[in-house]
C-alpha cells in the first residue's frame, strides 16, 4: 500500500499524545460534529484568501454518508496506527520475561524501552520520502527480528527497527487520512486513527496476558505485530490527491477525488479542489526559519514547545512502557497478575481519549487542559503517597540488609529476597535458600494497593482527557500555513526528545528516589507546567487563525 505524503514532516501522533488531525496545511482544524464549535477558516480557500472570500465553499457537495471506498482507505491506513499503539504497548508485558532471559540490569532495560523512541525519531526524519508500505515492511522486519532475538544486541536492533516503523507511521498516517477524507468528515475520520492507536495498546496488553506464563512468551508478543503489518502491505490503496498533484499526476488526483466524493460532486468542484491543493502546496513551502522566529511567531512556537514538553515530562509514558513493572512495584509480584492488572492503564487511556474527542470542542482547549492537569497532579501525588505507604521512600541500597524489615522494597531489588525465618531482607548472592520473591500475605496492604490503583486511574484518565489530546489541537491553531510545517517540526522534536528522556530514566529514577519519589518528581514538574500553561496558553477554540494570532 503506497501512501505518500508531500508534507509528512508536521505533527506526528506520539505515544501518550494523540493529535486528532494531521495539519497538512489544508485546514487548521475541522470537526464534523454539528454539536462542536468549528473555526471559521475550515478550508484552504479561506486561508489563501485571508478569510475574505467564502464563495468557493458554495461548490462543496453535501455528503450524507461516506462511501465504502473512503472507509477502505481510512481503515487500511489506520492499521499503521494500530501497529504504532501495539508496538509501544507490548514492551510493558514483555520487559520482565526479557530481563529474565537476557539478565538485564536497570540501564539495559531502559535502553530496550527507549530504543524504540530513538528509532521513531529516525523514522520521522525518513517520513518525507517513503510511504506506509515502507512502514508496514519495517514493522514486519522489526517484529521478526525481535521474535527471533538470541542476544541483547539483536533485541535492541529489533526495537530500533520497530521504532523506525513507529516514526514513519506517526507522521504519514494522519496526513494521509486528512488528505483523502471529505472535508465535512475530516475531523470525524481523523479520530479513527487516534482511537486505533489506543486500541492497539489495549490489544498489546491482551496479548501480553495470553503469553505471560508461556515460556519465552515475549517472542510471541512481538511476533503478533507482523500479522496486521502483513495485511497492510497489500498494495491496493492509492496515493493521496495531494501527493499526486505535487508530483504532476493531476488526472490521477481528479479520479481519486471523484471516488472519494462519489456521485455527489461536480466537475467544477473537483477543479476547485485541485486548484486549492496546488495553491496550498506553494504556500506551505514559502515560509522560512527567519519568519518562524519573528516576533509574530516566536511566542506561539514557545507555547507549542511548552505543551509538547508538558505532555511527556508529566511522566505518562512511564505508565505505558512500564505498567506491568509498576504493578509489580505495587505488590503484584506474579508476572501474570501484574500484566493482567496493568491493562487498566490501556483501557483507561482508550476510554478517556474517546471522551476527550467528544468534549474538547464543547468545553474548550484551555479549560479542559487546566482542569484535567490539576486532577492529574492530584493523581500523581496520591500515587506517590500510595507507594510511600507500601514501601516507604527508600531508594535502592548498596546491600540487601539495608532494607531491614521493609519487605515490599526488598523484593523489588533483583539481588534480594525475603527471609521468612528472620523476617528481614537477605542477599541472594550469599546463597540463601530460605527466601521468597514476594511478601507474605500478612505484610501485604491490600487497601493501600486499591488506593494506588485508583490513583493510577485518576492520573491516566486525567491525562487522556487533557494533555494527551489538547496540545495537538492548540498547536494546529497557532501558526499560519507559511511556517506551520517548520513550527510543528520543532515542537514535535521537543516531544520526541522529552519522550526519550522519560523512557530511559524511569527505572533509574525509582532506584535513586524510590517509586514514591519518582512520581512526586513528575508531580512537581507537572505543577510547574500547569502554572506556565495557566499563565501563557490562550483559548483557541472557536477562533479563526487570524483571531488566534491576535492573542499574541
From TrEMBL:
Top-level taxon of origin: Eukaryota
Subcellular localization: Membrane
Pfam (any one): Sugar_tr
Biased amino acid composition, Polar residues: 1-13
Transmembrane segments: 66-86, 125-149, 156-177, 189-211, 301-322, 342-361, 368-389, 450-474, 494-513, 519-537
Region (Disordered): 1-42
Biased composition range(s): Low complexity: 30-42
Swiss-Prot/TrEMBL GO biological process terms: myo-inositol transport; polyol transmembrane transport
GO cellular component terms, semicolon-separated: membrane
Recorded topology in the membrane: Multi-pass membrane protein
Record keywords, A-Z: Membrane, Transmembrane, Transmembrane helix, Transport
GO MF terms held by the record: transmembrane transporter activity
The Major facilitator superfamily (MFS) profile domain, residue ranges: 73-541
Record keyword Hydrolase present: no
InterPro entries linked to this entry: MFS_dom (IPR020846), MFS_sugar_transport-like (IPR005828), MFS_trans_sf (IPR036259), Myo-inositol_Transporter (IPR050814), Sugar/inositol_transpt (IPR003663), Sugar_transporter_CS (IPR005829)
Family designation: Belongs to the major facilitator superfamily. Sugar transporter (TC 2.A.1.1) family.
Name this polypeptide is given: Major facilitator superfamily (MFS) profile domain-containing protein
Upper classification of the organism: Eukaryota, Fungi, Fungi incertae sedis, Mucoromycota, Mucoromycotina
